[in-house]
Amino acid sequence: MDLELVTKGKQLSDNDQTILTYLVTHINELEGVSLRKIAGTLYTSPATIVRLAQKLDFSGYLELFYFLKNQYQPQNQLVEATVDISIPTEKIAPSIHTMKNIYQDNQEKFITIYATGFSSIIAEYLYKKLLVNGIKTLFVNAADSAGIINNNADNISMLIVISKSGETQKVIEKMQFSKERQIPTILFTGNSQSRATEAASIIFEVTDERPVDSQNVTYNSFFGKLLLLMEYIVQEFTQKTQSK
After folding, report:
1. What is the C-alpha separation between 74 and 99, in angstroms, rounded?
2. Pairing state of beta strands 156-163 and 185-189?
3. Who is most buried in 58, 140, 144, 192, counting CB within 10 A?
4. Burial (0-12, 13-18, 19+ Cβ within 10 Å), 113
5. For the purposes of burial, counting CB atoms within 10 Å of the CB of 100, is it exposed (0-12), middle (13-18) or buried (19 or more)?
6. Cα–Cα distance, 25 to 65 (Å, whole number)
7. β-bridge partners, 160
8. Which pTM value belongs to this model?
């Protein structure tokens, strides 16, 4: 269970950690239970739980409770296998058209793809998918030298980045570099309100039902839906560009 995005940068006591862990573990059992009763179970006071919520930038216990309820499920809870994989084709068509035009005007340059962590798995798949379709592509991840992008900026037609949270610092740095050099940046993310969106030319958002699970520990359909979206975009992109 990953609470890093909630607790990062916060000074929490051992008691605070105990309370937070209890709330997350029992979140589906606590709806309708009074704050006083929860405090009694934890041998603490209602005020202590309220102060913890405020430390985490929530207005009070109820806001914290509903936030946690929307993010976590018990480890043993069965997950419905049916996933909504519908793609908003009409909505994203203009973005694909723009990408195609960028490519058509810069076919001698590389489409460069950058991602870290689990996102780099999807990024590498996209890289190979474009290559087998005859499109010049370069794949860079966190293990590679920054110079690969920095020293080849004149040979990059567009930068495609993937960040589930939209807050991955290394991704944001590459996006800012590209923006300064007027390189179009295509962002795939689960968070349209993130810092990364500020530097993106085009944004594709994929629903992320576990935004605080930065370690990808629990069930999440984000990467599966992202892969299907990539497949559709490559199909549309290559059909249009190859027909020219």
Report:
1. 41
2. parallel
3. 140
4. buried
5. middle
6. 12
7. 113, 186
8. 0.67
Furthest-apart CA atoms within the chain: distance in Å: 71
User: What's the token pair of residue 142?
Assistant: 């966190």
Q: What is the dihedral of CA 66, 71, 74, 76, to 10 degrees?
A: 150
Q: Which residues are 204's β-sheet partners?
A: 188
* DSSP assignment letter at 76: T
According to the model, what pLDDT value does residue 51 have? 92
Whole-number Å distance between alpha carbons of 176 and 183: 10
Give the tokens for residue 76: 């043993």
How many C-beta atoms surround the C-beta of residue 212 within 10 A?
Answer: 21
Q: Which of 187, 229, 193 is nearest to 84 (CA)?
A: 229
Q: Which amino acid is at 1?
A: M
Query: Could you tell me where the beta strands, DSSP code E, fall in 108-195?
Result: 110-115, 137-141, 156-163, 185-189
207 with 62: CB under 8 angstroms?
no
Q: List the chain residues with pLDDT less than 50.
A: 1, 74-81
For 219-235, write each residue's pLDDT tens digit: 888 999 999 999 999 99
